[in-house]
Protein: Ubiquinone biosynthesis O-methyltransferase
Organism: Undibacterium baiyunense
Amino acid sequence: MTINTSNHAASNVDPSEIQKFSDLAHRWWDPSSEFKPLHEINPLRLEWINNLAPLAGKKVIDIGCGGGILAESMAKKNAQVTGIDLSEKALKVADLHSLESGVQVRYEKIAAEEIAEREAGQYDVVTCMEMLEHVPDPSSIIRACASLVKPGGKVFFSTINRNPKAYLFAIIGAEYLLQMLPKGTHDYEKFITPAELTQDIRNAGLIVDAMKGMSYNPISKIYSLNQDTSVNYLVACTRPL
């Protein structure tokens, strides 16, 4: 793991958000821990990404990779994967797990905006999942993703819609009633509507290709991809040639 400690790395980060995930970092790869939802949704998002942008042989960067769940799964698809995050503890966990699993991923502590300046246009695929709702300026992250991807390359985002249903399901339901996530994981004011996200995507020079909703059935305890974007949703984009 490479650690970059420049001042710019802290320009678009909420220290309390970094601390929140750093405190839980040692539990990242425990499928029964607070990260259980990430383990359960990962096969769905991986399949969706791989169907739209076959990963084998591609150069990929995962923005806000945390403990490396998605990054490792993409590397298992024979992609050359870089994972970046600003939580040093999470990256150390990711690095250790990579060594234990034998799945090679390059991890670096660096801001998305900073690596976008250094490695502009070098990636076939850029992923930024479950991160935009945790930063002060999501549009800055989106611009960085657009800069990182090659012309013709694909960018994938996922986040949470902002409406009463999303508040009920993502905060009241997931954090308080079902206790699937630690209380305080999400801040409703940072949720992003599809209209806001697609506008930022277009402003960054990307084209929206597809949008999918992700739902959780509390009875069957199964996640699924569908057309319901009212709570969790994913967006696929292309950088024009």
Notes: The helical segments are 15-23, 36-52, 69-75, 88-101, 112-118, 138-148, 164-177, 194-203. DSSP finds eight helices and nine strands in the chain. The first strand starts at residue 2 and ends at 3.
